[in-house]
Amino acid sequence: MKKNMTRSLRLWVQNTLPMENLLPDSMPAYVDSYVYLFGILTVAALVWLIITGTVLAIFGPQWWHVSPIGHFFNSMHFWSVQAFFFFMVLHLWAQFMMAAWRGGRHWTWIGGWLLFLVSIVAGLTGYLSQNNFDSQWIGVQGKDAINSTGVGGFFNILNFGQMYGLHIFVLPMVIIVLLAIHLMLVRMHGVVEPLPNGKEEVDDGEKVAE
Amino acid sequence: MARKWRNNNADFPQKPYDLIHEMLVALGIMGALVLVLAAVFSTADVPALTAQQVARQDPKLLLQNALDDLSGQDAISTYGPPYNNSGTAQSIAGFSPAQMAGVQIPINSAKVNVLDPLNKVAKVDTSLQSPLQTWSKATVKQRSAWVNQIESALNHATLQHGVLVVPAASPDGYGPLPTMLNAYLGLARSGLLESAIDGGSGPMPATNRTESLLLLQDVPDAQYANQLDMSGNQWGIIKETGNYPGAVWLWFYTLLYQIPPFVNSSSADLEVVLTTGLVTILLVLTPFIPGLRSLPKVFGIYKLIWRRWYRTTTKKGRGHA
Fold this sequence. Notes:
The complex is a heterodimer.
Chain A: H1 5-16, H2 19-22, E1 26-28, H3 38-59, H4 63-66, H5 68-97, H6 106-128, H7 133-148, H8 160-189
Helix pairs in contact in A: 3-5, 5-6, 6-8
Chain B: E1 14-16, H1 19-41, H2 51-57, H3 59-71, H4 97-101, H5 109-122, H6 129-137, H7 140-154, E2 158-160, E3 163-165, H8 177-190, H9 193-198, H10 210-215, H11 219-227, H12 251-256, H13 268-284, H14 295-299, H15 302-305, H16 307-312
Antiparallel strand pairs in B: 2-3
Helix pairs in contact in B: 2-3, 2-8, 3-5, 3-7, 5-8
């Protein structure tokens, strides 16, 4: 048959991520701990960030300074950020403690770290977009670290327009794309099985891929 | 190409699982949590520090700021890249990315912060034109002498009805500075100093306020932050105004600034960033690093996480479907 990109993609998806793995209605019995909720709680916080952030963006960056309702939406956005990072860090520690990179899942681990790092930049641009003393102080202090790396001319945290644009569009898009890949990888590989119980040797040369 | 991994979840005993239901429950819990936190704690909104506020509360500080700008002794004039080449960029063993990047946002503090705004005022108050011309025609040595004279006198100067009154000058005099500084103070008190500074920087000054933010970035901002317990050696970036949390997740990064060898280093920023970057790279590459990737087994927290599973399975191997 003549090479067909659409057919190749369909066969790849069918082979790599069949529907029963993408949307399973059962889970291995070992997926039975509250620890497994940290990831979905992080995603839930992100959803609320996007909802509250969209409202803030619709009314403009001045709105929340002058309107009590705007201030309330800003408060929700702020606490969504705190919840987002709180559960993300718990999720990261839990995955570390479970050595969740085993069985070929190293890209899930690396992708998760990329998400964390991009989220940090998203959080920074958010703090910078506030237009109050917090953003002023964070800006004039943070500039020294960024300038020392040589990127201060390109990523100028004192440039409100640039930081606001990155915060409300570019970085959310990057996070959403990375998250989609991260979730796809989780569903493709399945949830990592438990570590063998009992005393094991330290650094037994366990292979990354089985 | 043969795949190196296999989704083996189906090999294990199963429990019913509703992904969508779990997502909706998580959304509900998170929504409730965020609503309650916002309702109970709200969020801080301390207004930005303005030149107007400094002119009102500590006018001599603003004037000292202006004198530093005029004499090229302010922190930005001696900063180095990306603002100018008059300072030493941070480096480690000769490696200086800031130096390599060069001057990207050229700033001449005297011109940007003082002279250009005053030239705008001179279009309204033409009596300012002559002092500004006197300044621009003076030699560097003469300007320094005027600045030094008035700086020495600043401690004994008073403000009478908003006008700076300095003690009688020595024979060298203060030159045009008293008139210039009074006009500067007036511009600051009007609230227009920041827009006068940013107005010359490009077609969209309202969206890029780099220059006016750098105006107060040294002593004025630092004093204000100190009053709000936000200095580096207080909470640093992990605290916002009031008692609100800042970027708590950057605790490691901000902690490094407070400990040796970073705390007293002139290249602390570069060193902290590179150290944090190195630690991050190690963590990102954990799956490939022997020893590091075995720490989960050493810590043993996994035994708590999977304790129910371990109870229900035999010692040897795992339960199979």
